[in-house]
Write a structure and sequence with these properties.
alpha/beta; TIM Barrel; 8-stranded mixed β-sheet; two-stranded antiparallel sheet; 10 strands
Length: 290
């Protein structure tokens, strides 16, 4: 397999074959993100993709494949169809293909195109919501509004594809912490995803957000401030059926919540930690990471 640069994938794709069909991120302007700043975006040729699939086919069965990089759904529809068809032809035991996407990529496709991708094996789309608050989204230079992300979620779910969302605790800073948490819970409810991953913002040196923090224009909430956001987001969510996790390595309070049935139990635990205010109850800083 020929990979270019650092490869990122969702935690739930840890056991998947990572197939790099594109490099970098087609947008690559979010102020908090460092992942693809060293790469220029390009879609790989089918000859390059085919060579990697042929190599991987020698190691079958492979139940799951994840298409990298940052928003592989940005590749032309015909190219994505050709890739999925070849995966189905060559990879024995293939059950599901996953992909990162921006809301703008989803909105460029119609329902028929997404249903075609679903029939060819696309089983899950990972979408970064980050925040449901309009001002926070503007400040972090997200390339979609909350309303656009709700529409994108409807298209994905309408095509029968699983939807996994990421939100960022702390991304509104101290100034917009309350509004960020309140509106994120409301937008998550409107999107009604199958999975939510709550990560805690870790400001990476060299990013625009790092520059804002150094200039005093952004202040990251305290550990317990981040947990208060988690409490507000969980309290504000109403899901049909969703697995909500805050067990990423960046988080101070790891939780795995099946909603709606475990919501009140999770809230009771979060509130008990907040009431005690004991740092010993939190994940130590030395164990936190991106």
């Amino acid at each position: 397999m020929k990979y270019e640069g650092m490869i990122y994938r969702p935690p739930s794709e840890a056991d998947s074959l990572i197939l790099q069909v594109a490099t970098g991120c087609s947008y690559n302007k979010c102020t908090f993100c460092h992942s693809f700043r060293e790469k220029a975006f390009r879609v790989k040729s089918f000859a390059e993709i085919k060579e990697d699939i042929d190599e991987a086919s020698r190691y079958a069965p492979i139940p799951r494949v994840f298409l990298a990089d940052g928003d592989a759904l940005a590749m032309p529809h015909d190219a994505l169809v050709e890739t999925l068809r070849y995966l189905r032809l060559k990879i024995q035991g293939l059950e599901r293909v996953g992909i990162y996407a921006n809301a703008s990529d989803v909105l460029k496709k119609d329902g028929a195109e997404l249903r075609e991708l679903r029939k060819l094996g696309l089983g899950i789309v990972y979408l970064g919501l980050e925040s449901g608050n309009a001002e926070v989204l503007r400040r972090i230079r997200k390339n979609a509004t909350a309303e656009q992300m709700v529409r994108a979620a409807g298209l994905v779910k309408g095509a029968g594809v699983l939807l996994s969302l990421t939100v960022l605790l702390g991304v509104g800073g101290v100034e917009l912490s309350r509004e960020h948490a309140r509106d994120t819970g409301a937008v998550l409810t409107a999107m009604d995803p199958d999975f939510v991953g709550a990560l805690s913002l870790m400001v990476v040196p060299g990013t625009p957000l790092d520059e804002e923090m150094r200039a005093g224009r952004f202040e990251l909430p305290s550990p317990f401030g981040l947990i208060r956001e988690l409490e507000a987001i969980v309290a504000g969510c109403e899901f049909t059926k969703c697995f909500f996790a805050s067990n990423h390595a960046s988080n101070y309070l790891p939780l795995r919540i099946r909603m709606p049935e475990e919501k009140e139990q999770a809230l009771a635990r979060i509130r008990a930690v907040l009431e005690r205010g004991d740092p010993a109850l939190l994940r130590p800083e030395r164990l936190r990471g991106l």
